[in-house]
């Protein structure tokens, strides 16, 4: 094998594939990155039986060939190469990498022991890469990190006609985002429970205007609780495949109340920054308290009497005056996610800065879940909804 490739092109490709390498591989060979050079260019990939990543990049191939190299070591080397073209050649069990005056010799891993990459499941449709990336970034933070409940560590993709809904929850908050897509067949109705980490990688790599082909296969047994299904996202020369999570996701729509007793419209930028500043004094168990008045919300936080912060922001309150408290991290996640979707729409419409818009916070009482949305044209946007459970406010000192 022998090829020549631009350093930046190789670096971006290697870095992307390396994110899917297992941190603690079951067998050493799974820590490898498969390097394939042929007339079509260079292909880098990895697979650990759960997740696979594959990327194709242009390269000048002198001799086609295949090699398996230590993935994380390769990524670290390429990240620190000087600005010059990279030349790679294989000889026996050694991979030689040269860039400028730098030269590295890597011992290749046993290629015959490496598993075959999974077959691509059937395509179900395509979505705009930018829209999918924004929706993924909005809901992924709400997925649970508790592996004892695998179902909650995933993001539910709910396909219904030409609409796709992404939903995630950790029991304390729930994020739901809707985007349009182009199904391969009319009237499609299906769901897939995808690992949140896979969606996070999609959010980092998918580009606006670039179509992403979504393909998945349900378990062969037809049992939705089985974990035999696979899902794939492909676009821009990259393909990410993951095993679906077994289990049925909760009926998320039923968790949203039909109506709320109060609503408050708040300036997105000033309110978010005020919450961020006030939350600096909150410790791990201290909430941020929001005291709503007809034209003002007072934001306050304290930590065991050692520190206190308070700030006021204008608001338009509909309903009775109330005080409601939240986990500051959950609240900021919701505000950031709502603004992220608005920023995407502003870019599409060339409408300027999303911080000029308004956040709508709807609630009924200090003990019932509250809803965060983006307010468009005096009404909440349902493209993204964030439901968050309030915290019990501590008794005043």
Produce a short descriptive summary.
The chain is α+β, with helices and mostly antiparallel strands and 397 residues long. It has helices at residues 7-18, 71-79, 129-139, 196-205, 268-278, 328-349; strands spanning 2-5, 32-38, 41-47, 51-57, 60-63, 65-70, 86-91, 94-99, 102-107, 123-128, 154-160, 163-169, 173-180, 182-183, 189-195, 211-217, 230-235, 238-243, 262-267, 288-292, 296-303, 307-314, 316-318, 322-326, 358-363, 370-376, 379-388.
* Overall pLDDT score: 89
Unreliable runs = 220-227
DSSP helix fraction: 10-25%
Task: Provide the gyration radius in Å.
Answer: 24 Å
Largest sheet: 9 strands, antiparallel
How many angstroms separate the termini?
72 Å
Q: Any idea what the shape is?
A: elongated
Report strand %.
Answer: 35-45%
In the sheet with the most strands, the strands line up as 6-2-3-4-18-17-16-10-14
Count every beta strand, where a strand is a DSSP E run of 2 or more residues.
27
**Alpha-beta content class:** alpha+beta
Q: How many DSSP helices?
A: 6
Structure description:
The protein is an alpha+beta fold. It is built from six helices and 27 strands. Strand 11 (154-160) and strand 12 form a beta hairpin. The chain is elongated, with a radius of gyration of 24 Å.
Question: Keywords for this structure?
Answer:
9-stranded antiparallel β-sheet; alpha+beta; 397 residues
Reconstruct the topology from this structure.
Elements: E1 2-5, H1 7-18, E2 32-38, E3 41-47, E4 51-57, E5 60-63, E6 65-70, H2 71-79, E7 86-91, E8 94-99, E9 102-107, E10 123-128, H3 129-139, E11 154-160, E12 163-169, E13 173-180, E14 182-183, E15 189-195, H4 196-205, E16 211-217, E17 230-235, E18 238-243, E19 262-267, H5 268-278, E20 288-292, E21 296-303, E22 307-314, E23 316-318, E24 322-326, H6 328-349, E25 358-363, E26 370-376, E27 379-388
Antiparallel strand pairs: 1-5, 1-7, 2-3, 2-6, 3-4, 4-18, 7-8, 8-9, 10-14, 10-16, 11-12, 11-15, 12-13, 13-27, 16-17, 17-18, 19-23, 19-25, 20-21, 20-24, 21-22, 25-26, 26-27
């Amino acid at each position: 094998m022998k090829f020549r490739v631009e350093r930046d092109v190789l670096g971006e490709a290697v870095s992307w594939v390396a994110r899917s390498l297992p941190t603690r591989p079951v067998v050493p060979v799974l820590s490898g990155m498969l390097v394939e050079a042929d007339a079509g260019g260079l292909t880098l990939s990895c697979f650990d039986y759960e997740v696979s990543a594959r990327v194709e990049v242009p390269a000048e191939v002198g001799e086609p060939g295949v090699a398996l190299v230590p993935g994380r070591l390769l990524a670290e080397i390429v990240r620190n190469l000087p600005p010059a073209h990279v030349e790679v050649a294989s000889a026996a069990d050694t991979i030689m990498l040269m860039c400028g005056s730098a030269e590295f010799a890597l011992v290749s891993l046993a290629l015959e022991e490496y598993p075959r990459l999974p077959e691509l499941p059937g395509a179900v449709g395509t979505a705009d890469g930018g829209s999918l990336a924004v929706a993924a970034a909005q809901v992924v933070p709400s997925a649970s990190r508790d592996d004892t409940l695998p179902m909650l560590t995933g993001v539910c993709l709910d396909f219904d006609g030409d609409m796709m809904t992404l939903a995630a929850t950790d029991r304390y908050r729930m994020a739901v985002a809707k985007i349009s897509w182009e199904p391969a067949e009319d009237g499609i109705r299906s769901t897939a429970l995808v690992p949140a980490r896979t969606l996070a990688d999609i959010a980092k790599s998918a580009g606006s205007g670039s179509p992403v082909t979504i393909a998945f296969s349900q378990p062969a047994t037809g049992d939705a609780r089985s974990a035999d299904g696979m899902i794939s996202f492909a676009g821009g020369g990259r393909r990410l495949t993951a095993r679906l999570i077994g289990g049925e996701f909760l009926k998320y729509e039923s968790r949203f109340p039909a109506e709320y007793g109060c609503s408050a419209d708040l300036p997105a930028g000033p309110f978010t920054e005020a919450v961020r500043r006030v939350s600096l004094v909150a410790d791990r168990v201290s909430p941020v308290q929001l005291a709503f008045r007809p034209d003002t919300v007072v934001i306050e936080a304290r930590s065991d009497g050692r520190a206190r912060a308070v700030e006021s922001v204008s608001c338009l309150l509909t309903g009775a005056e109330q005080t409601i408290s939240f986990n500051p991290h959950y609240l900021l996640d919701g505000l950031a996610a709502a603004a992220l979707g608005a920023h995407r729409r502003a870019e599409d419409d060339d409408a300027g800065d999303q911080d000029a818009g308004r956040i709508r916070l709807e609630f009924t009482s200090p003990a019932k879940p509250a809803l965060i949305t983006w307010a468009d044209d005096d009404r909440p946007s349902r493209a993204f909804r964030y439901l968050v459970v309030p915290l019990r406010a501590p008794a005043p000192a």
